[in-house]
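task queued by scheduler; priority normal; single chain, no ligands, no partner chains; default sampling; output format set to structure tokens
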Amino acid sequence: MQQAVIAVKNMTTAKTNLHFSPLELELKEYAKENKVPIIFDDGLSFLEAVIRTKRPQNILEIGTAIGYSAIRMSKACNSDVYTIERDPKMFEKATENINKAGLNEKIHIIFKDALEAFDDIKNIKFDLIFIDAAKAQYHKFFDLYTPLLNEHGIVVCDNMLFHGLVEDKDNMENYSRSVRGLIRKLNEFHESLLNNNDFDTAIYDIGDGMSISVKK
């Protein structure tokens, strides 16, 4: 039976009361200047609200980038964050930033491709998984790591609408083959989530599109 999809329109203009430390502002500026994709402010507000409600002890993040979201997630509820990054430059920058934040004992970075990192954390149970990495691999990430979720654990995925292109079905011929392939894979992942009877899923028009799947 297909699960209901909840689409909340125009949430990209949502007001938030987020506050940022000087380091976090520095990271936001670095990301902007170096074209490093990080979570939008309204998406971050949504994610942190989920974390404060769920109060997870252990969080798994797939896609560290510069460590911005890992830092925010850990601080939101004093959670332990295990985060996976395959890019050496990003891994080095994230390690530096996490040390600056004084969170090196709370945030544990795994330098490996996420599809090859399962054995590094297979003995840890997670309350929340945040997927924000290679969008073409979202389905594989979800299937690989959700067995590590605790009962009623949550999976949050970012970039689910891919700059609005996922919903722009009338103009597919205007995009390159690689972009069309990525859009197709994201659409397939949407359908997979909504038809997964082990999870209740909603997809929201927040930031670049966010989904939340709650394990039954």
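post-processing summary
- The chain has one domain: 11-215.
- The radius of gyration is 17 Å.
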